[in-house]
Amino acid sequence: MNVTIKKIVVVTFSVLSVIVLLIIGLAWYLVYSPNVSCPSDCDFYVRQGSDVGDVIDDLSSRKMFVNDNKIVLATIFLGFGDDYNVRPGHYSVRDGMRNIDIFRMLYHGWQTPVRLTINNLRLPEDFASSVSRQMMVDSIEIMRFLNDSSSMDSLGFTSWNLFSHIHADTYECWWNASVAEIMAKLVSENRLFWTAERVNKAESIGLSPAEVCILASIVDEESHYAPELQRIAGLYLNRLRSGMPLQSDPTVKFAERDFAKTRILASDLLTDSPYNTYKFKGLPPGPIRLPNTSTIDAVLNAETHKYIYMCADPSFNGSHRFAVTLSEHNRNASAYHKALAKLNKN
Protein backbone atom coordinates (compact mmCIF):
# COMPACT_ATOMS: atom_id res chain seq x y z
CA MET A 1 0.00 0.00 0.00
CA ASN A 2 1.55 3.28 -1.07
CA VAL A 3 1.73 6.38 1.07
CA THR A 4 -1.16 8.10 -0.68
CA ILE A 5 -3.57 5.26 -0.03
CA LYS A 6 -2.45 5.06 3.56
CA LYS A 7 -3.14 8.75 4.02
CA ILE A 8 -6.59 8.38 2.47
CA VAL A 9 -7.40 5.46 4.78
CA VAL A 10 -6.16 7.34 7.85
CA VAL A 11 -8.04 10.50 6.94
CA THR A 12 -11.21 8.56 6.12
CA PHE A 13 -11.00 6.61 9.37
CA SER A 14 -10.39 9.80 11.30
CA VAL A 15 -13.32 11.56 9.69
CA LEU A 16 -15.61 8.59 10.29
CA SER A 17 -14.42 8.39 13.89
CA VAL A 18 -15.16 12.05 14.39
CA ILE A 19 -18.59 11.65 12.81
CA VAL A 20 -19.37 8.63 14.99
CA LEU A 21 -18.20 10.49 18.09
CA LEU A 22 -20.30 13.50 17.11
CA ILE A 23 -23.35 11.30 16.58
CA ILE A 24 -22.77 9.58 19.92
CA GLY A 25 -22.23 12.92 21.61
CA LEU A 26 -25.29 14.43 20.00
CA ALA A 27 -27.38 11.40 20.92
CA TRP A 28 -26.16 11.57 24.51
CA TYR A 29 -26.92 15.29 24.60
CA LEU A 30 -30.38 14.85 23.14
CA VAL A 31 -31.29 12.06 25.54
CA TYR A 32 -29.55 13.06 28.77
CA SER A 33 -29.48 16.86 28.80
CA PRO A 34 -32.31 18.77 30.56
CA ASN A 35 -35.06 19.69 28.14
CA VAL A 36 -38.10 20.62 30.23
CA SER A 37 -38.76 24.24 31.10
CA CYS A 38 -41.74 24.27 33.41
CA PRO A 39 -42.09 26.78 36.28
CA SER A 40 -44.08 24.20 38.26
CA ASP A 41 -44.97 20.56 37.78
CA CYS A 42 -46.86 20.13 34.50
CA ASP A 43 -49.39 17.32 34.34
CA PHE A 44 -50.50 15.45 31.26
CA TYR A 45 -52.72 12.47 30.56
CA VAL A 46 -52.23 9.50 28.25
CA ARG A 47 -55.44 7.78 27.19
CA GLN A 48 -55.84 4.12 26.35
CA GLY A 49 -54.48 3.33 22.88
CA SER A 50 -52.34 6.48 22.60
CA ASP A 51 -48.97 6.06 20.89
CA VAL A 52 -45.74 7.98 21.22
CA GLY A 53 -46.72 10.28 18.37
CA ASP A 54 -49.89 11.31 20.22
CA VAL A 55 -47.90 11.99 23.37
CA ILE A 56 -45.26 14.00 21.52
CA ASP A 57 -47.94 16.13 19.86
CA ASP A 58 -49.62 16.74 23.19
CA LEU A 59 -46.43 17.62 25.04
CA SER A 60 -45.06 19.80 22.23
CA SER A 61 -48.29 21.79 22.10
CA ARG A 62 -47.78 22.72 25.74
CA LYS A 63 -44.56 24.61 24.94
CA MET A 64 -42.78 23.08 27.91
CA PHE A 65 -39.65 21.95 26.07
CA VAL A 66 -36.49 23.95 25.49
CA ASN A 67 -36.13 22.22 22.12
CA ASP A 68 -39.09 20.36 20.66
CA ASN A 69 -36.87 18.56 18.17
CA LYS A 70 -35.09 16.78 20.99
CA ILE A 71 -38.09 14.73 21.97
CA VAL A 72 -38.63 13.56 18.39
CA LEU A 73 -34.97 12.57 18.01
CA ALA A 74 -35.01 10.92 21.43
CA THR A 75 -37.99 8.84 20.31
CA ILE A 76 -36.05 7.63 17.27
CA PHE A 77 -32.97 7.00 19.42
CA LEU A 78 -34.93 4.86 21.86
CA GLY A 79 -36.53 2.86 19.05
CA PHE A 80 -40.08 3.89 19.84
CA GLY A 81 -42.11 3.98 16.66
CA ASP A 82 -45.40 5.80 16.19
CA ASP A 83 -47.22 2.51 16.71
CA TYR A 84 -45.74 1.99 20.16
CA ASN A 85 -48.53 2.20 22.75
CA VAL A 86 -47.38 3.97 25.89
CA ARG A 87 -48.97 3.13 29.21
CA PRO A 88 -52.13 5.17 29.88
CA GLY A 89 -52.24 7.28 33.01
CA HIS A 90 -51.62 10.63 34.64
CA TYR A 91 -48.01 11.81 34.57
CA SER A 92 -46.18 14.81 35.99
CA VAL A 93 -43.29 16.51 34.21
CA ARG A 94 -40.89 18.55 36.33
CA ASP A 95 -38.67 21.44 35.40
CA GLY A 96 -35.23 20.25 34.27
CA MET A 97 -36.32 16.73 33.34
CA ARG A 98 -34.50 14.97 30.51
CA ASN A 99 -36.08 13.28 27.53
CA ILE A 100 -34.89 9.91 28.81
CA ASP A 101 -36.67 10.57 32.12
CA ILE A 102 -39.95 11.22 30.32
CA PHE A 103 -39.75 8.13 28.17
CA ARG A 104 -38.72 5.89 31.06
CA MET A 105 -41.70 7.24 32.94
CA LEU A 106 -44.03 6.43 30.05
CA TYR A 107 -42.44 3.06 29.33
CA HIS A 108 -42.73 1.83 32.92
CA GLY A 109 -46.03 3.58 33.64
CA TRP A 110 -44.65 5.59 36.55
CA GLN A 111 -47.81 7.59 37.16
CA THR A 112 -48.63 10.35 39.59
CA PRO A 113 -51.88 9.77 41.55
CA VAL A 114 -54.78 12.15 40.95
CA ARG A 115 -57.08 13.60 43.59
CA LEU A 116 -60.63 12.34 43.17
CA THR A 117 -63.13 14.57 44.97
CA ILE A 118 -66.56 13.15 45.81
CA ASN A 119 -69.15 15.59 47.22
CA ASN A 120 -72.44 17.41 46.57
CA LEU A 121 -74.10 14.43 44.86
CA ARG A 122 -77.72 13.28 44.97
CA LEU A 123 -78.11 10.40 42.51
CA PRO A 124 -75.98 7.50 41.29
CA GLU A 125 -75.85 9.13 37.85
CA ASP A 126 -74.44 12.28 39.50
CA PHE A 127 -71.74 10.08 41.02
CA ALA A 128 -70.97 8.51 37.63
CA SER A 129 -70.77 11.91 35.95
CA SER A 130 -68.52 13.37 38.66
CA VAL A 131 -66.09 10.45 38.64
CA SER A 132 -65.89 10.30 34.84
CA ARG A 133 -64.95 14.00 34.69
CA GLN A 134 -62.00 13.34 36.99
CA MET A 135 -60.90 9.86 35.89
CA MET A 136 -60.28 8.00 32.64
CA VAL A 137 -63.29 5.73 33.10
CA ASP A 138 -66.50 6.56 31.24
CA SER A 139 -69.76 7.43 33.03
CA ILE A 140 -71.63 4.74 31.06
CA GLU A 141 -69.18 2.14 32.32
CA ILE A 142 -69.69 3.38 35.89
CA MET A 143 -73.49 3.19 35.60
CA ARG A 144 -73.20 -0.29 34.10
CA PHE A 145 -71.24 -1.34 37.19
CA LEU A 146 -73.70 0.32 39.59
CA ASN A 147 -76.66 -1.33 37.90
CA ASP A 148 -75.05 -4.78 37.84
CA SER A 149 -76.33 -6.73 40.85
CA SER A 150 -73.33 -9.08 40.99
CA SER A 151 -70.87 -6.17 40.99
CA MET A 152 -72.77 -4.36 43.73
CA ASP A 153 -73.30 -7.57 45.71
CA SER A 154 -69.54 -7.97 45.83
CA LEU A 155 -69.41 -4.62 47.64
CA GLY A 156 -72.29 -5.48 49.94
CA PHE A 157 -74.83 -2.86 48.87
CA THR A 158 -76.94 -1.54 45.98
CA SER A 159 -76.73 1.58 43.85
CA TRP A 160 -79.54 3.25 45.82
CA ASN A 161 -77.80 2.96 49.17
CA LEU A 162 -74.41 3.71 47.60
CA PHE A 163 -74.12 6.94 49.58
CA SER A 164 -74.45 5.02 52.83
CA HIS A 165 -71.21 3.21 52.09
CA ILE A 166 -68.95 5.96 50.80
CA HIS A 167 -68.37 9.41 52.23
CA ALA A 168 -67.61 12.85 50.87
CA ASP A 169 -63.86 13.33 50.70
CA THR A 170 -60.87 13.69 48.39
CA TYR A 171 -59.08 10.46 47.54
CA GLU A 172 -55.77 9.65 45.87
CA CYS A 173 -56.30 7.26 42.95
CA TRP A 174 -54.61 6.16 39.75
CA TRP A 175 -56.25 8.08 36.92
CA ASN A 176 -56.63 4.96 34.77
CA ALA A 177 -58.15 2.86 37.57
CA SER A 178 -61.09 0.62 36.66
CA VAL A 179 -64.56 1.15 38.09
CA ALA A 180 -64.07 -1.85 40.38
CA GLU A 181 -60.77 -0.45 41.64
CA ILE A 182 -62.29 2.99 42.26
CA MET A 183 -65.23 1.53 44.15
CA ALA A 184 -62.98 -0.72 46.20
CA LYS A 185 -60.89 2.33 47.13
CA LEU A 186 -63.92 4.37 48.22
CA VAL A 187 -65.43 1.52 50.22
CA SER A 188 -62.09 0.76 51.87
CA GLU A 189 -61.62 4.39 52.90
CA ASN A 190 -65.18 4.47 54.24
CA ARG A 191 -64.41 1.50 56.50
CA LEU A 192 -61.46 3.43 57.87
CA PHE A 193 -63.70 6.47 58.39
CA TRP A 194 -66.02 4.40 60.58
CA THR A 195 -63.73 4.10 63.55
CA ALA A 196 -64.71 2.16 66.66
CA GLU A 197 -65.60 5.47 68.29
CA ARG A 198 -68.00 6.44 65.50
CA VAL A 199 -69.58 2.98 65.44
CA ASN A 200 -70.10 3.11 69.21
CA LYS A 201 -71.71 6.55 68.94
CA ALA A 202 -74.06 5.23 66.25
CA GLU A 203 -75.07 2.35 68.48
CA SER A 204 -75.67 4.76 71.37
CA ILE A 205 -78.31 6.64 69.35
CA GLY A 206 -79.87 3.43 68.08
CA LEU A 207 -78.70 3.63 64.46
CA SER A 208 -76.39 1.65 62.21
CA PRO A 209 -73.63 3.52 60.32
CA ALA A 210 -75.72 3.27 57.14
CA GLU A 211 -78.75 4.75 58.93
CA VAL A 212 -76.60 7.55 60.32
CA CYS A 213 -75.65 8.42 56.73
CA ILE A 214 -79.32 8.44 55.69
CA LEU A 215 -80.24 10.79 58.51
CA ALA A 216 -77.18 12.97 57.87
CA SER A 217 -78.23 13.33 54.22
CA ILE A 218 -81.61 14.69 55.37
CA VAL A 219 -79.99 17.08 57.85
CA ASP A 220 -77.64 18.29 55.09
CA GLU A 221 -80.59 19.12 52.85
CA GLU A 222 -82.51 20.82 55.67
CA SER A 223 -79.86 23.36 56.63
CA HIS A 224 -76.48 24.78 55.66
CA TYR A 225 -76.24 26.58 58.99
CA ALA A 226 -73.52 24.58 60.75
CA PRO A 227 -74.22 25.75 64.35
CA GLU A 228 -77.63 24.07 64.39
CA LEU A 229 -76.92 20.78 62.58
CA GLN A 230 -76.63 18.85 65.86
CA ARG A 231 -79.92 20.34 67.03
CA ILE A 232 -81.71 19.34 63.81
CA ALA A 233 -80.22 15.85 64.11
CA GLY A 234 -81.59 15.65 67.65
CA LEU A 235 -85.02 16.76 66.45
CA TYR A 236 -85.21 13.98 63.87
CA LEU A 237 -84.01 11.43 66.39
CA ASN A 238 -86.86 12.57 68.66
CA ARG A 239 -89.35 11.98 65.84
CA LEU A 240 -87.90 8.54 65.08
CA ARG A 241 -88.02 7.48 68.72
CA SER A 242 -91.59 8.70 69.19
CA GLY A 243 -92.85 6.91 66.07
CA MET A 244 -93.70 10.21 64.43
CA PRO A 245 -93.11 10.51 60.65
CA LEU A 246 -89.97 12.49 59.84
CA GLN A 247 -92.02 14.82 57.61
CA SER A 248 -88.95 16.16 55.82
CA ASP A 249 -89.59 18.29 52.74
CA PRO A 250 -86.25 17.38 51.08
CA THR A 251 -87.25 13.70 51.04
CA VAL A 252 -90.38 14.63 49.08
CA LYS A 253 -88.26 16.52 46.55
CA PHE A 254 -86.06 13.46 46.24
CA ALA A 255 -89.07 11.18 45.78
CA GLU A 256 -90.28 13.39 42.92
CA ARG A 257 -86.75 14.05 41.58
CA ASP A 258 -87.59 17.75 41.58
CA PHE A 259 -84.67 19.34 43.41
CA ALA A 260 -85.50 22.86 42.24
CA LYS A 261 -88.89 22.80 43.96
CA THR A 262 -89.10 25.67 46.46
CA ARG A 263 -92.51 24.88 47.96
CA ILE A 264 -94.07 21.57 48.93
CA LEU A 265 -97.80 21.39 48.18
CA ALA A 266 -100.41 19.15 49.76
CA SER A 267 -100.54 17.11 46.55
CA ASP A 268 -96.80 16.43 46.83
CA LEU A 269 -97.33 14.77 50.20
CA LEU A 270 -99.36 12.03 48.48
CA THR A 271 -96.39 10.87 46.39
CA ASP A 272 -96.24 7.09 46.70
CA SER A 273 -92.56 6.57 47.39
CA PRO A 274 -90.65 5.14 50.37
CA TYR A 275 -88.69 8.39 50.25
CA ASN A 276 -91.83 10.38 51.09
CA THR A 277 -91.38 10.70 54.84
CA TYR A 278 -94.79 12.34 55.21
CA LYS A 279 -96.49 9.17 54.03
CA PHE A 280 -94.10 6.53 55.39
CA LYS A 281 -92.66 6.43 58.90
CA GLY A 282 -89.02 5.84 59.68
CA LEU A 283 -85.95 6.52 57.60
CA PRO A 284 -86.09 6.27 53.81
CA PRO A 285 -84.30 3.27 52.24
CA GLY A 286 -81.21 5.26 51.32
CA PRO A 287 -79.57 8.69 51.57
CA ILE A 288 -81.12 11.52 49.59
CA ARG A 289 -77.63 12.87 48.92
CA LEU A 290 -74.03 12.11 49.77
CA PRO A 291 -73.76 13.52 53.30
CA ASN A 292 -70.87 15.67 54.42
CA THR A 293 -68.58 14.04 56.94
CA SER A 294 -69.13 16.99 59.29
CA THR A 295 -72.88 16.30 59.18
CA ILE A 296 -72.35 12.61 59.88
CA ASP A 297 -70.44 13.66 62.97
CA ALA A 298 -73.22 16.12 63.84
CA VAL A 299 -75.70 13.23 63.85
CA LEU A 300 -73.35 11.10 65.95
CA ASN A 301 -73.09 13.99 68.41
CA ALA A 302 -76.72 15.10 68.18
CA GLU A 303 -78.08 17.46 70.82
CA THR A 304 -80.28 15.96 73.51
CA HIS A 305 -83.46 18.05 73.76
CA LYS A 306 -87.24 17.77 73.41
CA TYR A 307 -87.75 19.68 70.17
CA ILE A 308 -90.10 18.06 67.66
CA TYR A 309 -90.78 20.95 65.28
CA MET A 310 -88.71 23.55 63.44
CA CYS A 311 -89.46 26.46 61.15
CA ALA A 312 -87.25 28.84 59.20
CA ASP A 313 -86.37 31.93 61.19
CA PRO A 314 -88.20 35.09 59.99
CA SER A 315 -84.85 36.90 59.88
CA PHE A 316 -83.99 34.76 56.81
CA ASN A 317 -80.46 34.21 58.09
CA GLY A 318 -80.56 30.48 57.36
CA SER A 319 -81.30 29.46 60.93
CA HIS A 320 -84.47 27.92 62.38
CA ARG A 321 -86.79 28.34 65.33
CA PHE A 322 -87.42 25.14 67.25
CA ALA A 323 -90.48 24.10 69.24
CA VAL A 324 -91.62 21.33 71.55
CA THR A 325 -95.37 21.77 71.06
CA LEU A 326 -97.45 22.17 67.92
CA SER A 327 -99.00 25.43 69.20
CA GLU A 328 -95.53 26.93 69.67
CA HIS A 329 -94.56 25.73 66.20
CA ASN A 330 -97.67 27.30 64.67
CA ARG A 331 -96.70 30.66 66.21
CA ASN A 332 -93.21 30.35 64.74
CA ALA A 333 -94.64 29.43 61.35
CA SER A 334 -97.05 32.38 61.47
CA ALA A 335 -94.20 34.78 62.21
CA TYR A 336 -92.20 33.36 59.31
CA HIS A 337 -95.06 33.60 56.80
CA LYS A 338 -95.79 37.21 57.83
CA ALA A 339 -92.15 38.12 57.32
CA LEU A 340 -92.16 36.33 53.97
CA ALA A 341 -95.30 38.12 52.81
CA LYS A 342 -93.77 41.45 53.80
CA LEU A 343 -90.58 40.61 51.95
CA ASN A 344 -92.46 39.63 48.79
CA LYS A 345 -94.59 42.77 48.99
CA ASN A 346 -91.51 44.96 49.08
Q: Tell me, what's the shape?
A: elongated
SS field, number of helical segments: 14
The rounded distance between the terminal residues' Cα atoms is: 113 Å
Question: Which percent bin holds the helix content?
Answer: 40-55%
Helix-and-strand structural type: mainly alpha
Percent of residues in beta strands: 5-15%
Secondary-structure element pattern, one letter each: HEHHEHEHHHEHHHHHHEEH
Low-confidence segments, given as residue ranges, are none
In terms of quaternary structure, the protein is single chain
> How does the major sheet shape up?
2 strands, antiparallel
Q: Determine Rg (CA atoms, Å).
A: 31 Å
Strand order, sheet with most strands: 1-2
Overall average residue pLDDT: 86
What is the number of E strands? 6
What does this structure look like?
With 346 residues, this protein is mostly helical. It is built from 14 helices and 6 strands. The protein has helices at residues 3-32, 52-61, 68-77, 99-108, 124-134, 139-146, 149-155, 179-193, 196-204, 209-222, 229-242, 249-256, 293-300, 326-345; strands spanning 42-46, 89-93, 114-118, 169-173, 309-312, 320-323. A hairpin with a 7-residue loop joins β5 and β6 (320-323). The radius of gyration is 31 Å and the shape is elongated.
Produce a short descriptive summary.
By secondary structure, the protein is mainly alpha-helical. Helices cover 50% and strands 8% of the residues.
